Amino acid sequence: MENSAKKRIYLSSPTMHGDEQRFVAEAFDTNWVAPLGPNVNNFETELAAYTKCGYAAALSAGTAAIHLGLKLFGVGQGDVVFVSSLTFSASCNPIVYEKATPVFIDAEPDTWNLSPRALEKAFEKYPNPKAVIVVHLYGTPAKMDEIMQICEAHNVPILEDAAESLGSTYDGKHTGTFGRIGIYSFNGNKIITTSGGGMLVSKEEALVKEARMLSTQARDAARHYQHSKIGYNYRMSNIDAGIGRGQLMHLDEHLKRKKAIYQRYQEAFADIAEITMNPLNPKGDANNWLSCMTIREGSSVTPDMVMDALEAENIESRPIWKPMNLQPVFAAYDFINHNENGISVGEDIFHRGVCLPSDIKNTDADMDKVIGIVRGLFEQ
Ligand SMILES: *Cc1c(COP(=O)(O)O)cnc(C)c1O
């Protein structure tokens, strides 16, 4: 009872501004409720202008974008695809949709992203993967220079899973624009949302056109319904795209507030030697989608204790993504460890980490409360 009376402090929930409603109302007024329409085209153009990605196809989900990206690379039965292991399952599920074989690549400790060293090892074992899926976890850019160099040497295309990192840059360039194909997600808890949706982006217009065609049931250019390929119903609706256009107008503001949250935690925990914040990439600028902490090995405080203490005060937090190589559904697939032996980097982060409330609507008082609870555990 007492809990329900307290306002819940969220991990990362949608933040609406009013502009979204304007675009949605416009769609209603002009009866562009479905299927496509000006919001979809404009959302694509506006996102392409923001990220300088080239071309963009608005889709029903980030997962759909990854699936179509793999199709565009020709991934099929028997093909090997390398993919970051420390991620959300949507990064790799589409590999299995296509009956291809994921090989999970460990993280490195500097950015928590795909380890170039493990990637080199993977190429020794599997010289001809069809694609490499690189994730920018929690918004921190991966080591793209090293990763791209390795992939270029082997002539293997990169599919960049920037679902969590819209607005993050590396070397001054937006994440999602390094790979031959990139994807973004607008799921409810991401840095901007369309309630649900995704985007496939590429410098190659032909790939993006093909993605649009496949996402609308793969109709050939004929008056009658003719199909030469298997299609999907993956296109974004004109209503959702309207929400996206309104959100995109406020992305810079979201980025500022996410960064302020990260910095606030960093300063607040600076004097506690047992706490380290999730790493940033010195070559990049993160969107700080989620602020996470790890607890030093051997501490008497565990991630479960932190999450329980927060939940007792009606505050949402979350474990680090459980690595894909530890998931029952992917147990049959190979995993390449960053370390020579012993526990992998991803498993270590999973055991020691917690995602802290990173909702941009959290007030200073909310932040004080979270920080007070966490500090309290370590000061006992
Ligand atoms: C959210 C997410 C996805 C999937 O995006 P949806 O829009 O939810 O389908 C893919 N990869 C990562 C790393 C994500 O966090």
Describe the secondary-structure layout.
Blueprint: H1 2-5, H2 19-29, H3 38-51, E1 55-59, H4 62-72, E2 80-84, H5 93-97, E3 101-105, H6 116-125, E4 131-135, H7 144-153, E5 158-161, E6 169-170, E7 173-174, E8 181-185, E9 198-202, H8 205-215, H9 238-248, H10 251-268, E10 275-277, E11 284-285, E12 292-295, H11 303-311, E13 318-319, E14 335-336, H12 345-352, E15 353-355, H13 364-379
Parallel strand pairs: 2-3, 2-4, 3-14, 4-5, 5-8
Antiparallel strand pairs: 1-9, 6-7, 6-11, 8-9, 10-12, 12-15, 13-15
Helix pairs in contact: 2-9, 3-9, 4-8, 11-13
This protein binds pyridoxal-5'-phosphate.
Task: Summarize this structure as a short list of keywords or feature phrases.
single chain; 380 residues; alpha/beta; Aspartate Aminotransferase, domain 2; eight-stranded mixed β-sheet; four-stranded antiparallel β-sheet; 14% strand; binds pyridoxal-5'-phosphate
What can you see in these coordinates?
With 380 residues, the protein is of the alpha/beta class. 36% of the residues lie in helices and 14% in strands. It contains 13 helices and 15 strands. The protein has helices at residues 2-5, 19-29, 38-51, 62-72, 93-97, 116-125, 144-153, 205-215, 238-248, 251-268, 303-311, 345-352, 364-379; strands at 55-59, 80-84, 101-105, 131-135, 158-161, 169-170, 173-174, 181-185, 198-202, 275-277, 284-285, 292-295, 318-319, 335-336, 353-355. The strands form three sheets. An eight-stranded mixed beta sheet has the order 1-9-8-5-4-2-3-14, with helices on both faces. Strand 6 (169-170) and strand 7 form a beta hairpin. It starts with a helix and ends with a helix. It binds pyridoxal-5'-phosphate. The site of pyridoxal-5'-phosphate (PLP) has 14 residues, from helix 4.
